[in-house]
Input
Amino acid sequence: MTTVSISLLREITEKVRPPRALFVPYPLGYPLGEPGNPDLQKRIMRAAFALLPRTDTPVLESF
Output
């Protein structure tokens, strides 16, 4: 099963090295950004889903 992670702590993600991860620049507890901002939340989810076909793992992209 192909997986993708949304990461809030880049340093930890670099050590864990999941197959696919999207780093987002938001505080802990807010992996999809601002509450009440569905457009931003959809953009984050689409960016994460776009990593699913990648086979050149590990992948760590920044949002």
Q: What stands out?
A: Helices lie at 10-16, 38-49. Residues 38-49 form the longest helix (12 residues). The chain has one domain: 5-62. Residues 5-62 form one domain.
